[in-house]
TrEMBL record:
A cellular component term, taken from the record's GO annotations: mitochondrion
Cofactor(s) the record lists: thiamine diphosphate; Mg(2+)
The entry's keywords: Magnesium, Metal-binding, Mitochondrion, Oxidoreductase, Thiamine pyrophosphate, Transit peptide
Classification via CDD domains: TPP_E1_OGDC_like (cd02016)
Catalyzed reactions per annotation: N(6)-[(R)-lipoyl]-L-lysyl-[protein] + 2-oxoglutarate + H(+) = N(6)-[(R)-S(8)-succinyldihydrolipoyl]-L-lysyl-[protein] + CO2
Disordered: annotated segments: 1-20
Organism: Naegleria gruberi (Amoeba)
Major subcellular location class: mitochondrion
Subcellular location as annotated: Mitochondrion
Name of this protein: 2-oxoglutarate dehydrogenase, mitochondrial
Record GO terms (molecular function): metal ion binding; oxoglutarate dehydrogenase (succinyl-transferring) activity; thiamine pyrophosphate binding
Amino acid sequence: MQGLNSQRNLSSSFVTKSTPSDSFAWVGSNSQYLEELELQWRANPSSVPVEWQTYFASLPEVGSSSATFQSESSGSSSLSSQAGAQGEIISLIRAFQVFGHHVSKLDPLGKYSADLDFQDIPQLHIENYPHLCKMDPNTPITLSQDLIKGFLSSSNPPQNTQWTLKTLLDRLQETYCGTIGYEYMHINNRDVCNWLRERIETATNVDLTENEKKVLYERLTYSHMFEDYLANKFPTTKRFGLEGCESLIPGLKSMIDTSSSLGVDSFVVGMPHRGRLNVLANVMRKPLAQIFREFLGKTENKLGSGDVKYHLGTSTKRHLPFTNKEVELSLVPNPSHLEAVNPVVEGKVKAKQVLMGDNNREKVLPVLLHGDAAFAGQGVIYETMGLSQLDEYGTGGTIHVVVNNQIGFTTNPRSSRSTSYCTDIAKFLNAPVFHVNADDPNAVVKVCKLAAEYRQQYHGDVVIDIVCYRKRGHNELDEPMFTQPLMYQAIAKQEPVISKYRKQLLKEGIVNEEHLKQVDEQVKNVFDVEFARAKTDEKLDVTGEVWYLQGSKWDRMKTPHDYSPIRSTGIPMEVLKTLGKQVSTLPENDNFKPHKGIARVYNQRSQMIESGEGLDWGMGETLAYATLLNEGYHVRISGQDVERGTFSHRHAVVTDQESEKRYIPLKTISNTAQFTVANSSLSEFGVLGFEYGYSMESPNQLVIWEGQFGDFANGASIIVDQFISCAEQKWMRSSGLTLLLPHGYEGQGPEHSNARMERYLQLCDEDDETLPEKDSSKTLQIQKANMQVVNCTTPANFFHVLRRQLHRDFRKPLVVFTPKSLLRLKEAASSLSEFAAGTSFKQVIDDETGAITDPKKVKRVVFCSGKVYYDLLSARTTQNVALVRVEQLAPFPFHRVIEIAEKYPNAEYVWCQEEPKNYGGWSHVYPRFKTCLKNTTEKIKHHDIRFVGRKISASPATGYASKHNEEQREIVTQALN
């Protein structure tokens, strides 16, 4: 927004150049100009083109021709004068609805404007309405009930709809220019606007009841005293306190109460540091003694490294006295990448809704808290909101609460955003925005209730912008006067909101000093008792033995210290054939006409099942999903173009060529287990975060995110680094999320070749010098690992590694580097017998070609991983070179490598990879190979392993096909000769 003056110039230009027929689409995305144009029409209908006159005359209610205005002393006035006054009164009301938020009293400090581009609003001044400014402001007037029905249903409307101009102006200013600023007239749905208008013009003037105010005071006292108590007990400890926005707590609790009364049974919350401990204590009801014990430094996570207090989450069940319902409350753990938790929350909510059959998306509510600088600056906000209206990602609306400190870390708003409000990004979703002064707790509670009602009514996002201040620096040890001296001089003089509210209640006669004293003593006593318990109760220590809320689907999963047996992932042959035939058959009727090429693919798949030979990658993947669905597990695969597959290999959805009806064979497998395949928005960060959150909800589902190309996952590296790789160790929250990252060098340039394997391997936490337990009935190697990384070369091995994700009593993230050229390579096919009962995933595949007749005569063993194996295989001409595939890179298969090394005692060892030396698996496998060779028999203990691959390079691959081919030939030659 560039300010009202420039807007007016632009809109005037627009009036002369545009008509509804050619500009409605443009105006729809520039609603501010439309509002200006409408106001111009209301003041003088003939000043706009005829097409626009017709359009505005058709608008409901506010623009209705039934709205009337007349002065009782204007009987002799001309018709034109009455018409002019009528238009002006409608324009005046409209101006307050559209522009009132710009002049609302939002800053508790009284120094700043929440709207950075604020300028005077001429439409809000009565002197700019020629007919109205001539009137006596106390003269009675009659207004249409449609025009003011919101005001008429307020607590104190003028009797018999008799108003004066002064009464109307007072009511408009009270409603739209008080401590709440409403932004909703940008919404292009008139029904929604009118619904909001009626509630705003009613609710703003209906005060809370005396009992509601008493409850609010008690909640505000808990919020204030929590911060005060910690500040006194731990003055030099960072806590990212809520001081300056204590009204957030009663606001959130009122939102939960209202939402619960409207059908919500479960709340999933994501939030940054600020106020997190207060929310944990007073909203989530994490035991105060446990929080205090964490401050005392007496807790320990015996299963992991833990995290700082203000990153932690919790899950609980609470009974709400005001609705007499038990609800689930979850606060999702969050790293310092503040807004990264947003898509995680949405994914978790979506999974809850799917698993409980909440098809109307009314029982589970996502609530996201934000800082003002983060909300305006972090791109994941847009990525997450962009998912909200997509069928397989939408959660029925999110309530966003911005704790608007009016400052970033040390950055002023003018330097941290280019928009007027920090919340302007929400307008692209037509989300209403309620700005509210944090020092008016009544107003905070009102907008929180209204937001809850809106979400349940319209299943859309809604934003609450609580304009507050940050009493201390970025944290309690920071000095804000370095960079914002004037702001913090004002803050130092600021009276706490609890003190202001006490005075307000006393003035209104709702409470007396004795009542306030009792509340204060009651709250302080609770804190004192819990603090005393924190010093002595060792049962409060975080042991990590209870990972999840008791009774949840996760409480049967084993910890990294409890052995889980390895299970076979093979399937009886008759089941494979039955399911294979089912997922390879398209409807045989005249009403479904697939593309001829797709019909051919499905016919080939059917033949694979019949013959039991030549199963390609797409068929192996489909069988993995079909068998899991048949066993009752949910399967969800999401990402860019996953329905067809980037390389046209999956074809999970078949489209009728005449009607575009969709047929999904895997949906026919089970009536209880759900199969979801969903093309996502062109987002990596947001969608991967969503799928991670989805995977957290239940262990009984295979959740997959596929990158269009493996390197595209770079855009989601924050989710990989902060959640997938370390959440179990930091927060005791495990996930079985699977990432499919296409990888392989086919001369397609840097980004379409390399999935950055080395990044994922570097995140693996396995010690490269320590051999795990060899006995498979005792080993905890995978259970203790933070994640798995594989590079499969056969459809059968891919089949088994996917099934292995669910066929054990723990969950670990899995990264699979999937092929491109191998998708259809005949040599990379599998036989159906490799999927059958008794088979399982192979961590290492020894040379199975039959070319090796005497292992002792082998002069060279080439270890490799992925596609390069087939390049080596096609070029090998001697029996003296063995080709060994390392299918699982992490956890590293130490003992299998030792067995193979001992099998070929007279050979030299080579690691061959397509990637440059500083990419790929080399830096990960080399120290582990050294450990393996040190632990073989005496004869080969001193052997080393040699690298063959591309030279060290800044770019992962060349962009020239000829150069690629030359490099590839050189790699193969060096590895084999």
